[in-house]
């Protein structure tokens, strides 16, 4: 393969990832006209339409998607080789792209991001917030972060957060008119503030005690997709909230919230960073894992 083919394929991959010619031009640091010319020349040489253009977006055609699927591992290996070659004094460098759920970003990454960027100034860390489980290879990510119970078996994983625990809470004003539940089944008589995932699925509240596991399809007049908003709604007396306890430590400590069914909320494994076992670990990813990982 000649150098022209390689550069044109790299441009094609950038356009597909950005879903935009202009976005790819910014990413690559070249003119939009150069991006268009490179893709058009590649399509002309192959005699195949690789990208479907519209006034609003750009997406791979069926033929383009097949080519990119075969191409992505090779380009990743080239990126790895280049980034390894340019490292100096054992300092990891280059771009690192992660798929991270919102909760992990808030509870695990955010408190230490400034320290990480100070420790590794040559790494450009991009955190993409996605609550759904993502195929990191297909999505063009170096790695992902998820709860340990959600990990696929063919992934290598390293723990980056402590055990976490759910907390069922309500405001004193709410319990002034409603009895405290003594069992998860009592929640059928309560106003519950529910959480909807970005996939559209409503979270079913999960409880466990002495080996007994119960899932509750909570009901209530309020559905939100952000834990901070759910916690605030509970503080304001809108109903019961079931969130990770780290979101409500302060209002529990100062009495704005009261915890119930605590014995039904055991701790469980926290968040892990995961990546494909078949992929060689890039130095930047190794630095991230070593910086955030915890023992146990």
What do you see in this structure?
- The protein has ten helices and 14 strands.
- By secondary structure, it is α/β, with parallel strands linked by helices.
- The strands form four sheets. A five-stranded mixed β-sheet has the order 4-3-5-14-6, covered by helices on one side. It has a five-stranded mixed β-sheet with strand order 11-8-12-7-13. Strands 1-2 form a two-stranded antiparallel sheet.
- The mean pLDDT is 86.
- It is 36% helix and 22% strand.
Beta-strand residue fraction = 15-25%
From the spread of the alpha carbons, the general shape counts as: elongated
pLDDT under 50 segments (min length 5)? none
CATH domain class of the largest domain? Alpha Beta
Largest sheet: 5 strands, mixed
Lateral strand order in the biggest sheet: 4-3-5-14-6
- How would you state the average pLDDT, rounded? 86
Radius of gyration: 24 Å
Q: What structural class should be given to the helix and strand makeup?
A: alpha/beta
User: Number of domains in the coordinates?
Assistant: 3
SSE succession: HHHEEHEHHEEEEHEEEEHEHEEH
Keywords:
single chain; 296 residues; alpha/beta; Arc Repressor Mutant, subunit A; D-Maltodextrin-Binding Protein, domain 2; 3 domains; five-stranded mixed sheet; 14 strands
């Amino acid at each position: 393969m000649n150098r022209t083919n390689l550069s044109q394929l790299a441009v094609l991959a950038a356009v597909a990832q950005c879903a935009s010619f202009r976005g790819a031009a910014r990413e690559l640091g070249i003119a939009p006209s150069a991006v268009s010319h490179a893709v058009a020349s590649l399509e002309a040489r192959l005699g195949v339409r690789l990208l479907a253009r519209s006034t609003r977006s750009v997406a791979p055609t069926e033929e383009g998607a097949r080519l990119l699927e075969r191409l992505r591992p090779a380009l990743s290996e080239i990126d790895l080789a280049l980034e390894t070659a340019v490292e100096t004094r054992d300092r990891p460098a280059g771009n690192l792209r992660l798929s991270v759920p919102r909760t992990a970003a808030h509870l695990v990454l955010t408190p230490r991001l400034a320290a990480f960027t100070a420790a590794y100034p040559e790494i450009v860390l991009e955190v993409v917030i996605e609550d759904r489980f993502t195929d990191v290879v297909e999505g063009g990510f170096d790695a992902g972060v998820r709860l340990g119970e959600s990990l696929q078996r063919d992934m290598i994983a390293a723990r980056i957060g402590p055990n976490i625990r759910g907390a069922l809470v309500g405001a004193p004003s709410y319990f002034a008119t409603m009895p405290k539940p003594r069992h998860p089944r009592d929640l059928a008589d309560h106003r519950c503030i529910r959480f909807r995932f970005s996939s559209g699925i409503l979270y079913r509240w999960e409880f466990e005690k002495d080996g007994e596991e119960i899932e509750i399809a909570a009901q209530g007049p309020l559905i939100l997709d952000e834990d901070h908003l759910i916690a605030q709604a509970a503080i304001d007396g809108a109903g019961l909230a079931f969130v990770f306890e780290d979101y409500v430590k302060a209002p529990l400590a100062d009495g704005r919230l009261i915890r119930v069914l605590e014995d039904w909320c055991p701790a469980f494994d926290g968040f892990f960073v995961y990546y494909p076992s078949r992929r060689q670990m890039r130095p930047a990813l190794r630095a991230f894992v070593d910086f955030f990982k915890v023992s146990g």
